[in-house]
């Protein structure tokens, strides 16, 4: 499986070639969308829960992947965290590290771009087109679904909205119903989102992508394990349905909370940038990374 953080990055670069954490191209909220994707990943892995504006530890067992595992270790060390504070307190070179690891894994290739014709920065291109098409396909399946969708689909769609990629993925007035669908999924409103899907299908059916496979750095404790592995034995169907329902509810709740936190963080960063920012989405305005 792929990680939600990687999915967002590959989608962004595929939709906007030569984008990078220091090129001034990515939406301001993108860094917070990726941060939120870490939180959703930890939630789906059963490690944390979000409630009343706080991140609480449910299971301190380390994950195999260094990205979400670092986030988990920090949360465990602090005994949890206030959600909005955690969202804005990004580690140094936060986005750069994710971009570089996708580069090393062969999903992205780097290219030098000029920023305002003065400074050179590293941008990226999608090298693994199968991965990009797979993300597009999964996103499109979520927004075109005529009914409720599972937690993994809702998480991807909601985070695409939270990360500011909705207008890149579905541009123009004709795709307004699709963007509304993404917004509703980000806010955790599955019922109203489902009612908008019929209009979305007619507006953007030509955007569907086909994929021959996917890749990514795996997490041993598969966050989608409840959706992939059927239970066995007497009463297994009821148990699996209950677990699935609880997991989906938790993920919808955390995506909604993340969306609110992303908006708050973006607003705060916008005000700070008005006082003189660096033009980089790799860190909060108080940090400057070339």
Structure keywords:
290 residues; mainly alpha; yeast vps74-n-term truncation variant fold; three-stranded antiparallel β-sheet; two-stranded antiparallel ribbon; 12 helices; 5 strands
Structure description:
Strand 1 (48-51) and strand 2 (54-57) form a beta hairpin. The chain has helices at 4-15, 30-44, 66-78, 83-88, 94-104, 129-144, 151-162, 166-169, 176-186, 190-204, 225-228, 236-274; strands at residues 48-51, 54-57, 81-82, 108-115, 119-126. It has a single domain (4-210, 220-274), classed as yeast vps74-n-term truncation variant fold (Orthogonal Bundle), CATH 1.10.3630. It starts with a helix and ends in a 16-residue tail after the last helix. The strands form 2 sheets. It has a 3-stranded antiparallel beta sheet. Helices cover 54% and strands 9% of the residues. Mean pLDDT is 78; it is low at 191-244 and 283-290. Helix 2 (30-44) runs antiparallel to helix 7 (151-162) and helix 6 packs across helix 7.
Spatial extent as radius of gyration: 18 Å
Low-confidence blocks of residues: 191-244, 283-290
pLDDT averaged residue by residue: 78
Structural class: mainly alpha
β-strand percent reads: 5-15%
The description of the largest β-sheet is:
3 strands, antiparallel
Question: Reading side by side through the largest sheet, how are the strands ordered?
Answer: 1-2-3
Proper CATH architecture: Orthogonal Bundle
CATH class: Mainly Alpha
Kindly identify the CATH topology. Answer: yeast vps74-n-term truncation variant fold
**Percentage of residues in helical conformation:** 40-55%
């Amino acid at each position: 499986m792929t990680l939600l953080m990687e999915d967002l990055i590959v989608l962004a670069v595929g939709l906007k070639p030569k984008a990078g954490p220091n090129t001034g191209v990515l939406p301001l909220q993108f860094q917070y969308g990726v941060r939120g994707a870490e939180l959703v990943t930890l939630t789906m892995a059963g490690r944390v829960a979000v409630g009343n504006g706080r991140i609480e530890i449910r299971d301190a067992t380390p994950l195999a992947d260094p990205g979400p595992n670092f986030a988990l270790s920090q949360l465990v060390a602090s005994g949890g965290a206030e959600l909005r504070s955690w969202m804005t307190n990004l580690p140094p070179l936060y986005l750069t590290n994710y971009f570089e690891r996708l580069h090393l894994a062969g999903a992205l290739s780097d290219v030098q771009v000029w920023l305002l014709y003065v400074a050179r920065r590293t941008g990226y291109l999608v090298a693994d087109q199968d991965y990009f098409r797979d993300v597009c396909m999964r996103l499109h399946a979520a927004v075109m679904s005529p009914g409720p969708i599972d937690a993994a689909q809702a998480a991807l769609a909601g985070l695409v909205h939270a990360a500011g990629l909705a207008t890149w993925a579905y541009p123009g007035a004709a795709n307004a119903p699709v963007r509304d669908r993404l917004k509703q999924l980000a806010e955790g409103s599955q019922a109203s989102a489902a009612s908008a899907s019929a209009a979305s299908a007619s507006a953007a059916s030509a955007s569907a992508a086909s994929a021959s496979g996917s890749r990514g750095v795996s997490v041993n404790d598969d966050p989608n394990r409840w959706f992939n592995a059927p239970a066995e034995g007497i009463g297994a169907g009821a148990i699996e349905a209950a677990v699935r329902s609880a997991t989906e509810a938790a993920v919808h709740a955390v995506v909604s909370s993340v969306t609110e936190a992303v908006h708050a963080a973006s607003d705060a960063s916008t005000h700070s940038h008005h006082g003189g920012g660096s033009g980089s989405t790799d860190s909060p305005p108080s940090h400057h990374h070339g």
